[in-house]
């Protein structure tokens, strides 16, 4: 009889529960990880609320730090007991999407459906990692060894938050000297701020309304902070940029208001880089879009995954360029994950990210 | 007393009229062209209808072929009597926008207004070229000598149609082997089809409903034509691409329907390249946008201008790669321009482009 | 006792021989192909001559068309009996090199050695496909199904010649309207000419000295042919381009003379795209290099591989954009491969490529 | 009679002298600057030594900070008395080179000659700015207003050192997380180190042999310093990168040794970005070049100029991201420029850059 493990599952809109499942059998390309640390993502809250539909009973979570428990028969290059991470997105490496440089979309389903968006599998189309164990598909493409000098918490932002936030800056093609506005300063937005700083932006303007976040925004790279509950952010950004608008605007929330403001503050020829997960149709105002004649670029990004991405992100942490430890504000045992969701989803107590340890 | 010239002016919504104005005085950086051939653009029809506002009395038209009548005092490198073209968009060369590679947006006004969209000046913010004479600003950046072996009509598509249509393919970053759908096969869409072919697309799908255009679409590069009045173009394109969707979709009309269909047929990670001039807000459907997680890119382009662009476009015509002469279906004298607008705006008699000769 | 198969092996400099080996055992990620058609590459001639060292006894050849005989235990998505090709370069998909978009260099050895250059494995570091059977590593990343409407010979150029030749144009970033010179019009150079045409080059200048090749150069896209045995190719290209030089020069031979000429004909800011396999140190002349101040770019490319690349190349052949069948000038049985090498290496009888059928 | 001004001229190899010339007449597109601060470049030392030939009697120097004394008749958008800088390279804006995004090569002469390399005019093909006054060509494209809160010395590195050094990082396409080696840590190399840091490099390895420079290298972004007089820099860099090699190597000296080492430490697929001004032919060793199969990229850059570039560089200084004031180690009056050349050319007294004030 298969051994059991504790898991956090989606039950129905509004309810996440702790449950038990058998520890999974592994296929030839898989690895079984014993999860040592994981976290909760804003997307998990969307799932909990039923705003993003997944199957009832699915184990959720997509940000694993763990130890290799068992390797599939075809997996080479790793050893059991090795401490590793895997990205939230787990490209196979061998799909056509991967081989044309679009690994995040490996396994993307039909565009007309809703389920398999992008290549996001963990806690979306397969069981996730808010559990004692998690099965990592295509292990050789996805497992990245954690350097000995980094703790679990130090690499906990790599699988999703840091990879996604940075991609907002990367996909925008930020150049040295650019001005960049970042709309929303949750964990993703803060990492987008870091990404803009690392990319050479000379002026970074962070927009949010949570006073407590502005200090960390500034610490991570923002030159200006704009409280949209107090001033019109579009006017304020136009003022800061002497009417020029920004070269790049990063959307890091997933709402019409932030998307639209991001478009309105762009200079002609500028780029809107969107990271948010939207839950409604979007409107593009004619004027802000210059009637289609503004040489604008709008890009969306799904969190880049794969072991090379993880290796590079951990390298940045090792270099000391960035310190994301302040993002982990609370710690919970897996047994208490329902309480963790409660805190995190209500954004109580200044929470940014929680560390969950099984 | 200044000599007079005939001009076509915008009077009020619904009315273009032939009028007279003094031949303009030239400034040190300008050139005065005696227009030998010009044409009417779909955008001019928008102006005539009042859908795109310009000042009453403005001379319209932005596609000049002509002969240099007079050169500004600071202009070197040209001689009077030389046959030249200038692009629809006339970058100064020396503006900050030009110097950062965004010359089409040189002179773009406030994004919140409507008047000065992009760097489009001729027939928008300054007098245009549906006239006997036209003043070309920043002549050294904009006048391109026409090779002797090319006729006026052979280069008549360069200033706008060809430059804009090609930019739809160029801005999309088409790779050899890509599949590309082009929505609408008016003159711009046809040139986008040509641009996709020149960029190495292996499968080009042209969408329109005017049966007569499909023959020219095929001749200019389309592998498949889709009549959207007979089949659902999204379903048909998904069928043609075996459910994969296209790598690139080019929008060449400026409507919600074409924009939305272009988004729906994109593969995950694909690019929507928009050329149309819109006249309403746009809606981005959530599903087609993969909730923001599809690694999509949306780009808009304004017709690239400047003498180097013109030189290269004329070089392509000289090479024999492309024959756009079939696009000129009708010819009018400037005196008859009101009749030309009537024909062109009602798309009668299979008209694609008209040649106007003062 | 393992069944035997016929193979062509490298014996010692100057000698290729037909031999027998056991049909190989397959690992979990491999596929065993029964080779139906293959060919000889210029690089194989380098190997034969001892100019490019491989182990004695190695089966050579890296351009397989075949039928799946057996699939590894972890391989899914294919069926035995399926007709497929694999690229000359066989990226794993899961390596760090692959995951950062540099799949051709997957498995590249130390740069100081000579053996494992790039990710080239077939007939270099593992047994190749001039044999009755060949083992394809990382089958899921490498096997591309051949469409039913394409013959073996029609896809025979995909694994190397077409992929390499096209990459010369792709890596150079050719823009619509560019002028391009291609130095040498062997099979690779001819495919570079095709690649330049597909990329929108307006002027393609092909350089060689074999009169017979000029007709095919012209047919595949060259606007001008230059016989370097009769005129100085640098002077002639400067003349053709009115002293401007070319935007892109593609080197497709691998000699100092062609590399240097390619650099000399570049316009300031132009790109030299090098495809040749060199066998000596190269010299960069100071003047041609503008003392390092010319904003030049020099790129080298190793044949892109992987199933997506193969799928796209076959798609181009299906589209009818390109007809490379004229490149197959001779046909041999595997039993006669020594004669085929003799013909091919001496470039007798107007040979371009030979088809070898086991 | 024209008023006279003091100038530093090249007399003959080995000799720079202070002299007098008439203050120049200005043309319609020019501006006359009264120079307030300038500096000496390594290239000026090449000129002085006769290693880079210029006309005898030419005023040298190409890094001006000054005040507008007089504006040409066609120049608008500036006022006399305004404090400005101009880049070392002065693109016209209106040339074909500028209009295709290659402004640094505007005016580049024949590639076979030596004189007009790139678009470098000041102190190369026209009189330079080691003088009381300097004529700036194409003023509207080149004059950038200095923000009031920046001193002359704070912006003195913008015209050349910072623009060139940064371009080494920019042209290499450094990605967040890259490892970068910078060969030589003179002023240009130090700015390349800064540029690599601003571009998100996670590991920066600076190579030089002047112990005193290592402290500033570290301060400006180097994670590792390698003294090539004590260790083999190739071996040391391979050790630091665990045998992987670097993603990008920047050459900032202009010698065979540094060029070759830069190539040897590249990972397969890596980029060599060359900034140095060479004075001899270069050799590319076959092994380091992977016989042409390494997917390498080699780029050279000439200092980007133009007012938008200057505006952005000054913006970076204003942002506080970078403090280059420590590079100005010595100060001289124009009257003492011969002494300044003596100090600078012999690299005495820890000199990095000198400020010259007329």
Give a description of the structure.
4 copies of one chain form a homotetramer. With 358 residues, chain A is of the alpha/beta class. Chain A folds into 2 domains: 188 residues, Medium-chain alcohol dehydrogenases, catalytic domain (Quinone Oxidoreductase, Chain A, domain 1, Alpha-Beta Complex), CATH 3.90.180; 136 residues, 3-Layer(aba) Sandwich (Rossmann fold), CATH 3.40.50.720. Chain A is 27% helix and 25% strand. The first copy, chain A, is built from 11 helices and 16 strands. In chain A, the strands form 3 sheets. In chain A, strands 3, 4, 5, 6, 7, 15 and 16 form a 7-stranded mixed sheet that branches. In chain A, strands 10-9-8-11-12-14 form a 6-stranded parallel sheet, with helices on both faces. In chain A, helix 5 crosses helix 6 and helix 5 crosses helix 10. About 2% of the residues of chain A have low confidence. Chains in contact: A-B, A-C, A-D, B-C, B-D, C-D. Chains A and C meet through helix 2 and helix 10 of A and helix 2 and helix 10 of C.
Question: Outline of this structure?
Answer:
Four copies of one chain form a homotetramer. The first copy, chain A, is an alpha/beta fold.
The CATH homologous superfamily of the largest domain in chain A is termed Medium-chain alcohol dehydrogenases, catalytic domain
Domain count of chain A, please report it: 2
What is the global morphology of chain A?
Answer: globular
Oligomer: homotetramer
Low-pLDDT sequence parts of chain A: 110-115
Percentage of residues in helical conformation of chain A: 25-40%
Which percent range describes the beta-strand content of chain A?
25-35%
